[in-house]
Design goal:
The chain has a domain at about 55-110. The protein is mainly α and about 110 residues long. About 65% of the residues lie in helices and about 0% in strands.
């Protein structure tokens, strides 16, 4: 059974085994049991490790892209809201300054 292969030194202080250690041992056992003549398990394990690393890097890039896209959307919405508030402020003061003799309202900027 696979649980026999997990040694006492692999188990932490809380009697729990790290998931990556279990996965590593499962892959080693699977490759050892299925290795055909002429196929070296360490070479295959290195190839699998490289593919897993590439997949993890691609996943991290995808997550970073999604985070940047979300931040861009939020900042764009905030910019539109602030532009609307600024326009409202200008219109409010333009209308209120028109009623006072001797004061001319500031020009609108584009």
């Amino acid at each position: 059974m696979f649980s026999v292969e997990v040694e006492q030194r692999d188990i932490g202080a809380e009697s729990k085994v790290p998931l990556d250690e279990l996965c590593h041992k499962a892959v080693e056992r699977s490759l050892g049991a299925r290795s055909a003549p002429g196929v070296t398990a360490p070479g295959l394990l290195a190839q699998v490790s490289a593919l897993v690393s590439a997949l993890e890097a691609a996943w991290r890039r995808r997550e970073a892209h999604a985070a940047v896209a979300t931040a861009l959307e939020l900042h764009s919405a905030a910019g539109r809201r602030l532009q609307l508030e600024l326009t409202t402020y200008h219109w409010l003061h333009h209308a209120s300054l028109q009623g006072i003799p001797g004061l001319s309202p500031p020009p609108f900027s584009k």
